[in-house]
Design a protein that fits this description.
- This protein is an alpha+beta fold.
- The protein folds into two domains: 13-152, Gyrase A, domain 2 (2-Layer Sandwich); 177-278, Elongation Factor Tu (Ef-tu), domain 3 (Beta Barrel).
- Helix content is 14%, strand content 33%.
- It has helices at residues 28-35, 83-91, 157-169, 206-214, and strands spanning 13-14, 18-24, 48-54, 60-70, 73-79, 100-103, 107-112, 125-127, 130-134, 143-148, 220-226, 236-239, 242-250, 255-260, 268-270, 273-278.
- It has a six-stranded antiparallel beta barrel with strand order 11-14-13-12-15-16. The chain has a five-stranded antiparallel sheet with strand order 1-7-10-9-8, covered by helices on one side.
């Protein structure tokens, strides 16, 4: 992710890989607390945090921003996951709870390169159905907006590619379908985003996540790389001729890989391309 200033467009642009699922009802909070990996009880109305849904073996199925719109309603802002499939999978766990889940097909996501006019950080700006989240930091101010599809923003492939590179530069993994259900929160370094809890009550995969944390067994984590823009998620990362990890997310400027946290200081490569490790940027913890 480059820190060089760029001319920011004055218009919002479409983010087609981000979708909204609504979660409403008297038992919505308790349902989210039992299913999602972050502490929903600590989330006050009008605030948001990173969270996710795990397999029973503690692998990340979906990563999202969870917005508490009011006491009994939430927006699940899905990164990359199919909202219809996500809703169908979650529906199996509702049983007799008073919860309504739905893919919000009337809402679309867009981005702007600007600072929030008020709030920011973990505070969402909520105006009816429209919601804005601060997804930036001082070096890369930006806002994620969810609003009515009737006012759909423009498609801009250059800005979309830049947005994805900034995501990865912050250490926010963007998981294609074939990477879902593969990695633990610790392997994706989601502690950097404060995206999971090891102390709240049970949720799918909680035992494995907590054991890994308290026994100090997290030996792999996210590493940002430069030089493999032509590669694909799932490609091997090698060092001294030996495979030591895999790419998780790929963008034009930054690639994210899960690699050993302790490794020799030797050159890395992806296929025939030499790559270099670069520091992840801070600023997206919520």
């Amino acid at each position: 992710m480059s820190d060089k200033p760029r001319t920011a467009p004055t218009f919002p642009f479409l983010l087609p890989d981000i979708h909204v699922v609504t979660l409403r009802g008297r038992d919505a909070r308790a349902f989210a607390q039992a299913q999602f990996m972050n502490d929903v009880d600590a989330l006050v109305p009008g605030a948001w945090h990173w969270s996710g849904w795990l397999t029973p073996k503690g692998r990340v199925i979906a990563l999202f921003a969870l917005v508490r719109c009011d006491t009994d309603s939430f927006y699940v802002v899905l990164l990359d996951a199919d909202p219809v499939a996500f809703v169908a999978a979650l529906q199996r766990f509702i049983f007799r709870s008073k919860v309504e889940l739905a893919a919000a097909t009337g809402l679309v996501a867009s981005g702007t390169w600007s600072m929030p006019s008020d709030g920011g950080g973990h505070v969402a700006r909520i105006d009816g159905e429209a919601v804005q989240l601060d997804l930036g930091a001082a070096a890369h101010p930006r806002i994620l907006c969810m609003g009515p599809a009737a006012a759909a923003p423009v498609v801009d492939s250059e800005q979309l590619a830049r947005w994805r590179s900034v995501d990865l530069g912050f250490g926010l993994p963007r998981l294609p379908t074939d990477q879902a259900g593969t990695w633990t929160p610790q392997q994706l370094s989601l502690d950097r985003l404060r995206a999971f809890s090891v102390r709240k009550g049970c949720y799918p995969g909680q035992e494995i996540v907590a054991r890994t944390h308290f026994l100090g067994q997290a030996r792999r984590g996210l590493v940002a790389l430069h030089g493999a823009a032509a590669a694909s998620a799932g490609d091997d990362v090698a060092q001294d001729g030996q495979t030591i990890g895999r790419l998780v997310s790929v963008a034009s400027e930054v690639q994210l890989a899960v690699l050993p946290l302790e490794r020799p200081d030797l050159p890395l490569s992806v296929g025939a391309s030499p790559v270099v490790a670069v520091p992840l940027s801070d600023g997206l913890a919520r």
